[in-house]
Inverse folding.
DNA sequence: GAGTGGTCTAGACCACACG
DNA sequence: GTGTGGTCTAGACCACTCC
């Protein structure tokens, strides 16, 4: 027996894919759809919930159900890592003038609103393993939120971890009021003699937690991209671990790999 | 006024996060939960649907609701691109002996089940633009499904596109029965004198379409990672565009970036 | 067969958007 | 104010799983 709500969802999905219902279009009211399909309102709602979970529609309380428009994506490019490294050797004036790049995204801090918070904690198991230190070693946790001044929601949630003893030689690095630091993390590390030689970025995706959905202003039917970044210095030692949570509907990651010539 | 189903969802979510309900544990029946929380069954179902969408629980018709266990992730490493390139110059015996790497994933074709289908089509707008050719130019579309012999579902959906005239010099490249090709795409391109110098991989994430959920056997509350791979030859010409769809609950992408020394 | 979640109905009342 | 979707109830019947 065909399930009514799936048939209805299929029907509407087809209309959306073929363009019969273009992006931004308003769907008929649920009561109207119930009448047309000859089913009850809860059944219609069931069908619409499927489409909502797939990210095809947005339901707006009080005004209707609309076909979702694709979001414009911000690009996050791994060549920014080299660019950051080059910049870390520039004089402060230059570093400040180029505009501090937004941490972890590669955007420029011009019309960006920036927020940072520092906290010390004992390394939990997974971070201790990542750094190769005993569990409980004191880490500095730095939490960042950055957003365009135009948009209300941040475009990334960043937690960066450093081993405190590795950077304590420069007390300024422990002071959150010095953020945003001109030149970024690579310059901060340079002030204590650390040079980053290699960065590993691990990418996964999953649905957002309610907290992430709230902070990133994510509608139903979207995913987050979770990027776990590990920075190694020239001796192969782990010097920074960052966890970056990005909105899947607004973010594109670009990784360029150069191959050796034959 | 607090919403009942959110309160219930929060309560259960807390139990799951703190470990009060460990992975694999069965939740009480919906009727039982309704009794405990003093709400109707549909309200309980509403709360459970939230947790399901977040990927915290699995509902199994007939047997109950369970806390989801994290899946083990397969790693997809961008250093495989160089490895593939090196292998493309090996003699056929070596290429076959190393086991043809699974296209786009870096796994070895030992206990892998492999399926390929070829088709020609006129380039639609986005692909024509990516290749820098006029729309309608004939492309070869190659569709791959690969899975572990143990698992029923494939671990990636791959569509690879080549400009037919660029590879037609070797008719074997147009023959799907030659798959799996020992040495992979980079060796295939080598047979017509093409050397890949650079690969760009663009990563996004979103909820699966119903078709993807079916093919990849994705439960509710998971995402897909979409990887759009563009290969450039030594003259900067685009020679391959691939779209790879990966299950977000079973996949981790690893990108390593080496930085120049100071 | 007993128990589970899945589908569907019918309707009441509330919260929100917009004119 | 009017119409929209959001929440919640109460219950019937079906389909699946497992003993």
């Amino acid at each position: 027996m065909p399930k009514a709500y799936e048939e209805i969802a299929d029907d509407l999905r087809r209309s959306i894919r073929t363009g019969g219902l273009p992006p931004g279009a308003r769907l008929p009211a649920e009561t109207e759809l119930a009448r047309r399909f000859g089913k009850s309102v809860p059944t219609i709602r069931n069908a619409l919930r499927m489409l909502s979970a797939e990210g095809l529609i947005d339901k707006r309380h009080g005004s209707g159900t609309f076909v979702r428009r694709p979001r414009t994506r911000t690009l996050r490019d791994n060549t920014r890592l080299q660019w950051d490294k080059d910049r870390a050797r520039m004089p402060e004036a230059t570093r400040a003038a180029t505009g501090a790049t937004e941490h972890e995204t590669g955007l420029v801090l011009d019309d960006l609103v920036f927020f940072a918070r520092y906290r010390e904690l004992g390394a939990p198991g997974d971070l201790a393993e990542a750094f190769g230190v005993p569990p409980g070693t004191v880490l500095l946790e730095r939490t960042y939120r950055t957003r365009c001044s135009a948009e209300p929601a941040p475009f990334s949630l960043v937690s960066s971890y450093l081993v405190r003893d590795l950077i304590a030689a420069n007390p300024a690095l422990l002071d959150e009021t010095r953020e945003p630091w001109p030149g970024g993390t690579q310059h901060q590390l340079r002030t204590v003699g650390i040079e980053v030689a290699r960065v590993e970025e691990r990418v996964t995706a999953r649905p957002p937690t309610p907290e992430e959905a709230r902070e990133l202003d994510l509608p139903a039917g979207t995913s987050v991209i979770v990027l776990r970044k590990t920075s190694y210095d020239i001796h192969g030692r782990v010097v920074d671990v960052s966890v970056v949570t990005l909105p899947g509907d607004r973010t594109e990651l670009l990784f360029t790999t150069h191959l050796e010539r034959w």
In short: Strands of chain A lie at 57-60, 64-67, 74-77, 112-122, 138-148, 156-163, 196-206, 224-233, 238-247, 251-258.
